């Protein structure tokens, strides 16, 4: 039996604002069809919620209020709501560099069946100027994690909570537990 690989993209936001809609628009433009976009928001007025609910997303969109505070807690709430095969975490305002990123990730996953994969991260200023380009190491080793985290969550895909029920993001937001 053929199974479609679905991707859950969890976006966390302190509030429902224009930055969130930049991310919604970008994810909505992804060519791959089996995407669930999960938004965890910290606070929202009735008007902001109406704006979010009225958004015409090309993929499945669901939103949930954050039960408590903290970035790690928000990500963990997103994990709890995830149901897809793979999961990606984005902050409000983050975008994927092209509209075929998810398609290309799925091709890689289908071919290699990895537990996690990471790409490069490009950070741009508000004026679209390059601020930072995080290239991935040619060789991965344990020592890369001794003095920080070389893995940027915006460019890291993991098997989702449905496949890995016992992992969470540390409240210190420095480590992924249970991977």
Physical arrangement of strands within the biggest beta sheet:
3-2-1-4-8-5
Number of discrete domains = 1
Give the rounded overall mean pLDDT: 79
β-sheet strand percentage? 25-35%
How many angstroms separate the termini?
28 Å
What structural category do the secondary elements indicate? Answer: alpha/beta
**Number of helical segments?**
4
* CATH 4th-level superfamily: Spore Coat Polysaccharide Biosynthesis Protein SpsA, Chain A
* CATH C-level label: Alpha Beta
At CATH level 3, the topology is Spore Coat Polysaccharide Biosynthesis Protein SpsA, Chain A
Oligomeric state: single chain
Order of helices and strands: EHEHEHEHEEEEEE
Supply Rg. Answer: 16 Å
Shape designation: globular
Uncertain stretches: 173-179
How does CATH name the architecture? Alpha-Beta Complex
Helix content: 10-25%
């Amino acid at each position: 039996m053929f199974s479609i690989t679905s991707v859950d993209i969890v976006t966390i936001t302190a509030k429902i604002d224009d930055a969130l809609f930049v991310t919604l628009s970008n994810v909505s433009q992804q060519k791959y069809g089996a995407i669930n976009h999960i938004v965890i928001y910290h606070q929202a007025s009735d008007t902001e919620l109406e704006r979010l609910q009225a958004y015409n997303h090309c993929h499945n969109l669901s939103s949930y209020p954050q039960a408590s505070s903290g970035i790690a807690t928000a990500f963990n709430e997103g994990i709890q709501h995830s149901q897809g095969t793979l999961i990606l975490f984005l902050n409000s305002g983050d975008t994927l560099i092209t509209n075929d990123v998810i398609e290309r990730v799925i091709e890689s996953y289908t071919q290699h069946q990895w537990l996690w994969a990471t790409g490069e991260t490009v950070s741009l200023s508000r004026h679209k100027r390059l601020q930072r380009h995080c290239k991935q190491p040619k060789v991965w080793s344990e020592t890369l994690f001794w003095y920080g985290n070389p893995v940027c969550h915006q460019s890291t895909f993991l098997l989702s909570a449905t496949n890995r029920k016992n992992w969470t993001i540390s409240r210190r937001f420095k480590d992924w537990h249970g991977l």
